[in-house]
């Protein structure tokens, strides 16, 4: 498994967490490998993970917790640390909770033998460069850009271990509390007529050209992001077997577009079809699409064209401890990049209805496109990779020569 970076007292909490993440990813990819038509997440994992207060976990942690939720078959999407679960036994003054008759309530605890799942959070310390006064990170984010220059920001990655409430005795000891936590755990009801499934905000985004690059549904049989033209092309919705397949494919290509140099900058002009970096980008796009599909209560199957990279993904996960970390962080950023834009449109539709004005979003997209063109003009073509570098790619994973994908078509399907 992962090759730890040992310190004096052994592997760090981050290393151990990444090892758990890698194990879960390997199990999932091996499961998907055995059946390409199997969705990334099935019924048990189609609810977004939350803590006991109802706050949602972020993209990277949500992904891991959903993998674990499906793997273990838990029926709840609520997670908490051991300390938080223990706190359910006491009031605000740390006195044991009692019932109406004054009897102590049954003690809630983690079931013996259950193992936790690590999650990662980044905290930020913000310090004024001259006065050394500290301010909250949320306050820092609200400062004007020129004032932000007066502060130094220090990120710190922290690892916490959480348990699903199905790993506790809460259901037996405090059934009313278990029911309270699970009252928001709604059974995902798939649309019986999936052909008519709609995500209004996404449909509006396409119709009104509100994504960061044009999305062009076209009567043809391929879906791809053309990095040369900065355009997404997908078949018409009615060409897909159902709405889930359409939106899942679209989210995949939207993720590729988010990785352009003037956006999240995940890939460079030297990346070429079939390379290890290209394979990694496919994994980022697949997991991003799986996360976003789950967010909207849909299943996401592995894209056929991505299946060729399964062996490469497994090999990298098993050999390179940094692979899982950088990949999951990129998935988090990609999913957030897309979801914030979809939610912005959704909120405006809810507020203003069909008369909603999107001119500000469209104007920002024009600026984004102008920046894209400026960056593309600065790119100097790199020489072709030597054959020697290709030896790192397993021959069974190489792409047929007749694909003849060019550098400028590296994410075309």
TrEMBL record:
Segments forming domain Polyvalent protein metallopeptidase: 218-324
Domain N-terminal: 20-163
Residue span of region Disordered: 380-413
Biased composition, class Basic and acidic residues, residue ranges: 397-413
UniProt-recorded Gene Ontology molecular function terms: single-stranded DNA binding
Protein name in UniProt: Zincin-like metallopeptidase domain-containing protein
